[in-house]
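=== RUN LOG ===
request id: a7f3
mode: sequence -> structure
chains: 1
length: 486
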Amino acid sequence: MASANSSPRVSFVLLAILASVILIWFGTGLNPRWPLLWLAPLPVLIVAARGSWRLAACTAFVAWAFGNLNVWHYFSAALHVPLVVRLEIVVFPALIFTLAVLLFRALLRRGAVWSSLLAFPAAWVSFEYLLNLTSPHGTASNLAYSQLKFLPVVQLASVTGPWGISFVVLAFSCALAVGVHLRKSAPVQALRVVGATICVVAAILIFGEVRLALPPPPGHTVKVGLVASDLPANANVASPGVDTERLMHEYAAQAETLASAGVQVIVLPEHLGTVVDPHMAAIDAIFQPLVDKTGATVIVGLGHISTQKKYNQARVYQPSMQVSSYNKHHLLPPYESIFNPGASLLTLPEPDGNWGVAICKDMDFTPLSRQYGNQSVGLLLVPGWDFQMDRLYHGHMAILRGVESGFAIAHAARGGYLTVTDNRGRILAETQSNSAPFATLIAEVPVVHDRTLYLLLGDWFAWLTLAVLAFTLVRLIQPVRRAAVQ
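=== RESULT ===
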């Protein structure tokens, strides 16, 4: 094994940092351009392979930290996150990225070429998985969401969950860096590494294209309707009493119009108003006669305050049936700290297949969606509320849950998008919630449950990456091969 004859020049290092910063900035964040992330780590990895560990560490940390500043304004202006927390959001991932780069460098320079190829993506995906287990934001920072417009790769989520997508994107850059490093000293091995990686990526793309091309199994189609308003008077949570009742009457009028167009299920946004018991009966009296008259099911998002509990709740009105409800499981701190988390699912058996109900941030977490998938849900109905600025990123995160666990999604978010997707992640219909005083959307969606491998095996790939990471760390402490160059 050989490395470069000399350390990279300062100009080359600065150019590499600049290139990675630009690629990370535009390849991640709230409006990612998916091709850029496939190359974002490459300049840093090339520098790491040629330079000292100190140079590699500095290059990696600076590149990721500055690239990750693309979300600084969002956390500051939209979420009002404290400065200390914002610094953690920037610095901590940069440290993990730096450690992953250093592990790659150490293994490559010790002659463990294939281990170096696996170590870099394994380290990052292990971090993503462990963060998902411990963070109140679940998978929200996962790199897989940068690829949502690249549908053939998105299909990998049906096998590995989001973890496989992050892994293959990072492994691609890593393979190119290994190829560049070995192109002169070991051209055959360089070709093997790059060639094997390209073959794996090609196989994934072929799998994705085939999965997208397969016609859906025989099933039923449901006509769904979504409605949301971003009018200034409706932008915040309506106060208890007259304000909430006024808003509910306005939304009910929109729902009746959709029902008259043949819509079978109507989804309204999350937490439109606050209702204190015993006044929920007045809200139920607005929607229950409507659904009994039209035959359409209506989902309404409300804050429900009783004497003992407070819930961010979705009220479900079905014709000639008692009102049912779903309480949001995953609450956004600190904004929803007043609420108690829900603990149960809500499944609606229908002649055209099972429907399920979730609320907004619930879609940042894979386990809840898998629970619905295991109940053979074919359509998930999701009231939501986004922050305008994150309408694309957070609004589309839910799409991956449908691919992973095999269901279509109808997602109605104020401050965001009205979106209907199928179980392949294809957007069937979409409009912005501010496109009209009351934006509405009608779409035909197939209610077909798909039994995916990820649904059956869960986070098997994440556990595999943890095992791969452990293996590469063991390789790191083994004796250096004689052919390796320090």
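=== NOTES ===
Residues 10-214+459-477 form one domain.
The chain has two domains: 10-214+459-477, 220-449.
=== END ===
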